[in-house]
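Backbone-to-sequence.
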């Protein structure tokens, strides 16, 4: 009898072959159909552990994530151009097919942030990997953080140009949003931000992702919050996975795994105080351990029809 995991892997490999053979990943009926089928294949909760896949399947997964990244970039540029043609682009965000998902994800991440940061709203947020359609920043700034300033970082100047056109005509957001064309590894002025968001596709393999996280750990202010997007189960065929143990220099507060159409998991962590960082440096490569508590609870999100698995992570009292 063929197990569910084998069926999943077979379907993903079949879709990968079709996607990899396409001449272009720009939006069109065939591209949209294939990626929709891929997403629908990977969304159902699955116990699969992608780290245990064979070397060949690991390569397919890595290539598939990069293809997803390219397709997502084309999709966002496409809709950003359409929205930019309107007199008031922000009044038409609903035409983007995944806008409702961003509304859900924005509320989820704001709720998580509020739970761990209390009533004091962040003054300045950096979003790393904002892209041509910076919906996370727009949703948070418009719906949840009305006085926060957002600094959006992207390595692509054309993405920033497209993004700026969307908010330039809005009297509020145009004052509270800045766009910077930089490789985040070249940015050291991160201590001014209360919260740093790291987009799912900044660093598309373990080595790249860890390099970015280590850079943020070095330059973020002690006590500042890091919000990252990851993937869980079969969704790891679509996005890179960040494990709590990857967050060197941070105390991991919680890991959230949505089970509905919101694909990305969310990790929230806090930069260790300087005293703790000094202790870690004095111990060489040793880091303060994080451990998962035995309790896994259901988080009933206001806009979520399903449940979100929460793994509460606590800091060991002693090394």
């Amino acid at each position: 009898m063929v197990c569910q995991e084998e069926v999943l892997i077979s379907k993903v490999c079949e879709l990968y072959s079709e996607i990899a053979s396409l001449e272009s990943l720009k939006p069109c009926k065939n591209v949209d159909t294939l990626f929709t089928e891929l997403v629908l294949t990977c969304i159902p909760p699955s116990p699969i552990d992608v780290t245990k896949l064979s070397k060949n399947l690991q390569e397919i997964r890595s290539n598939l994530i990069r293809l997803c990244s390219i397709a997502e970039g084309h999709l966002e540029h496409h809709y950003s151009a359409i929205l930019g043609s309107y007199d008031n682009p922000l009044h038409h965000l609903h035409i983007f097919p995944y806008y409702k998902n961003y509304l859900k994800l924005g509320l989820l991440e704001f709720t998580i942030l509020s739970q761990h940061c209390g009533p004091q709203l962040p003054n300045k947020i950096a979003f790393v990997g904002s892209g041509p359609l910076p919906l996370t920043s727009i949703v948070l700034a418009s719906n949840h953080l009305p006085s926060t300033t957002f600094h959006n970082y992207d390595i692509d100047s054309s993405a920033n140009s497209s993004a700026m056109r969307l908010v330039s005509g809005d009297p509020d957001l145009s004052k509270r949003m800045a766009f910077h064309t930089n490789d985040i590894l070249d940015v050291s002025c991160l201590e001014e931000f209360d919260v740093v968001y790291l987009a799912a596709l900044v660093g598309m393999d373990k080595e790249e992702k860890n390099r970015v996280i280590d850079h943020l750990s070095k330059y973020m202010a002690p006590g500042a919050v890091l919000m990252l997007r990851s993937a869980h189960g079969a969704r790891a065929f679509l996005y890179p996975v960040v494990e709590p143990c990857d967050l060197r220099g941070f105390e991991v507060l919680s890991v959230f795994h949505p089970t509905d159409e919101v694909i990305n998991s969310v990790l929230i962590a806090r930069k260790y105080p300087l005293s703790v960082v000094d202790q870690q440096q004095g111990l060489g490569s040793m880091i303060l351990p994080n451990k998962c508590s035995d309790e896994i609870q259901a988080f009933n999100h206001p806009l979520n029809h399903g449940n979100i698995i929460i793994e509460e992570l606590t800091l060991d009292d002693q090394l």
